[in-house]
Automatic annotation (TrEMBL), chain A:
This is Biotin-dependent carboxyltransferase family protein. Coiled coil: none annotated. It comes from the Bacteria. InterPro entries: CT_A_B, Cyclophilin-like_dom_sf, PxpC. Keywords: ATP-binding, Hydrolase, Nucleotide-binding. The keyword Membrane does not apply. It comes from Rhodobacter flavimaris. Residues 26-300 form the Carboxyltransferase domain. The keyword Nucleotide-binding applies. Pfam families: CT_A_B (PF02626).
Length: 338, 252
């Protein structure tokens, strides 16, 4: 530990997140971790980290922060209005935060979960091998005003700031689904109807996203007393009312509702970022195609690194252009472009 | 569908299904409905996979009637894991399972510690004292851990404990609540709503976040409740020890 992230004010649902706690299913603990996992790989790419480190996940609303040492930060996931000492910061980019400066992060402009990562990563005491809050399991808590979180020194605070254009995932789309253990409990007709239906997100959180549609509820041929079975994030479960709920990071480890299939991990960020009202569709694909389309997470970072570009400020990114002295703005642009 | 016809079959010769669960998981399902033989088979498969892991296996876990193997996609393939599991299943088909570890957990029944005891006894066709005797007579198996961290499903109770879940949820039972439905017991790790009937309570906490081993119970352990007076349970709770007076014994 070598510094602090001070929380001056905070949105209602901001937690520390990382890659979570895989390997504890036998203890009834789901992996948890960042809801939009791609966003923390993007942050790792922007900050030159070998693997994503613990960061802040901000649901809907950010907060006001101050760091006690010069540190690069990365802003990824759902874009939020970010101001450094009143100056707008580009989302999907890294920036240098001088010690003592104040960073304001406002409400989501679109999507659901924004991420604030720091160059060295947060250094909170791990519980069961990770720093991430798993509220459903009673691990960690929503951050409060006046909390201070330890952080590791940024190993390269002077590294050039970077930006990337993320894969679009803030306005819904078509998610690819592989068959799961209970897919065959649904008739071919029922599955065909599911894949032909457009769904609207009604609500979502770290545990899952609930969908609505017009038309009859979806039901398996054999409902009733199915024994509870192991579930995983991405599973599309049909609740008693035949309404789909897709499971996310903080799902339970076993569940009793029948499940139609599992969304590809690589498409899950679209679901995680789907705010209420977003339209989603599903497409069934086979396992061989899915394996090619959704590589293991250990392969996610390299292409994101290649996608990073030097951060060049453009007038488009400056929210209140008229408030700037244009000459000094241009000088600053030259410095950051090199 | 083959799965449906297998659901109630005896498991002297299991015909488990090998199915995908996510891109890095293979699920071996022994039954679609609860079946004691399927549960034993699921636990026996985990015991085998823990004793001799498959190449590329990163995690294995049993639920009530299935076993999941998660694998490292960089190290192996689904086809390899599926084939290796089919071979492994031949070895475990007749493996008897006995609990190696038995927990004895003090518990208090009825009254404020189990408001639905009377109802449970009525449905089970016994007096309250006889019902508690029946429950505490011998260890129950930890059939699975799940739903919440550390939380055990215990069973299988005698046939007179066959009772459905309540149609209306009880808004909250406390941590340590002992509840029952469908010939099983769940011991709640945290305060929780439930549709199962609440008949007792213990001071043992199945999820101890700050302990060196946060989840003391394992699937396959035995759990025997030792009935104590309300006052004795209160005294145990007053110590603040999350083990709640539980004793662990190696089965002889």
């Amino acid at each position: 530990m070598s510094g602090w992230l001070d929380i001056l004010s905070i949105g209602p649902s901001v937690t520390v997140q990382d890659l979570g706690r895989p390997g504890h299913l036998a203890q009834g603990l789901s992996p948890g971790g960042a809801t939009d996992r791609r966003a923390i790989y993007e942050a790792a790419a922007l900050l030159g980290q070998a693997t994503p480190r613990a960061c802040l996940e901000m649901a809907g609303m950010g907060g006001r922060f101050r760091l006690t040492l010069d540190t690069r930060i990365a802003l990824t996931g759902a874009p939020m209005r970010a101001l450094l000492e009143g100056e707008a910061l580009r989302w999907n980019a890294s920036h240098l935060l001088p010690a003592g400066s104040v960073l304001d992060i406002g409400a989501c402009e679109s999507g659901a979960f924004g991420y604030l990562s720091v160059g060295g990563g947060l250094a909170c005491t791990p519980l069961i091998g990770a720093q991430s809050a798993h509220l459903a399991a009673g691990i960690g808590h929503r951050l409060q005003p006046a909390d201070r979180l330890p952080l590791l020194a940024d190993p390269t605070p002077d590294a050039p700031c970077l930006a990337l254009t993320p894969e679009p995932r803030l306005s819904g789309g078509t998610l690819r689904v592989i068959p799961g253990p209970q897919t065959a409990l649904f008739s071919a007709d029922e599955r065909a109807r599911f894949f032909a239906t457009a769904f609207t997100v009604t609500r979502g959180n770290r545990q899952g996203v609930t969908l609505a549609h017009s038309g009859a509820p979806f039901a398996p041929e054999a409902a009733g007393s199915l024994v509870s079975d192991l579930i995983t994030s991405g599973d599309i479960q049909m609740t008693g009312a035949g309404v789909p709920m897709v499971l996310l990071a903080e799902c339970q480890t076993v569940g009793g509702y029948p499940r139609l299939g599992t969304i590809l991990p690589v498409d899950l960020p679209i679901l995680a970022q789907a705010s209420p009202g977003t339209t989603l569709r599903f497409r069934e694909i086979g396992l061989p195609e899915a394996e090619a389309a959704s590589p293991p997470e250990s392969q996610w970072l390299a292409p994101l690194r290649r996608a990073c570009q030097p951060l060049i400020r453009s007038p488009h990114d400056i929210a209140d252009l008229l408030g700037y002295q244009l000459i000094s703005g241009m000088v600053r642009g030259d410095e950051e472009g090199t | 569908m083959a799965a449906m016809t297998n659901a109630h079959a005896p498991f002297s010769e299991p015909h488990p299904e090998v199915l995908p669960l996510g891109l890095d998981g293979v699920l071996v399902r022994f039954a679609l409905r609860f079946d004691a033989g399927a549960n034993r088979a699921a636990r026996a498969l985990v015991a085998s996979l823990e004793a001799a892991p498959l190449p590329g296996q990163v995690e294995c876990v049993s639920a009530l009637a299935s076993t999941l193997v998660r694998f490292d996609r960089m190290a192996t393939t689904r086809a390899f894991i599926e084939q290796a599991l089919r071979e492994r299943l031949l070895d475990i088909a007749h493996t008897p399972t006995h609990p190696e570890r038995i927990w004895r957990i003090p518990a208090s029944f009825g009254g404020e510690n189990g408001p639905q005891l009377t109802q449970v006894a009525q449905i089970a066709g016994l007096g309250e004292a006889a019902l508690i005797d029946q429950l505490c007579a011998s260890p129950l198996d930890v059939l699975a851990i799940g739903f919440a961290p550390g939380q055990p499903y215990l069973g299988l109770l005698p046939a007179n404990w066959e009772m459905p879940r309540l149609s209306a949820l009880t808004p909250e039972v406390p941590a340590g609540a002992i509840v029952t439905a469908i010939r099983q017991i769940v011991l709640f790790a945290n305060a929780s709503p439930t549709g199962w009937r609440w008949l007792g309570r213990c001071a043992f906490r199945p999820f101890q976040l700050h302990a060196e081993n946060p989840v003391p119970l394992r699937a396959g352990d035995g759990v025997q409740f030792i009935p104590v007076e309300h006052s004795a349970l209160s005294a145990i709770e007053a110590t603040g020890d999350p083990m709640g007076g539980a004793r662990l014994e190696r089965a002889s």
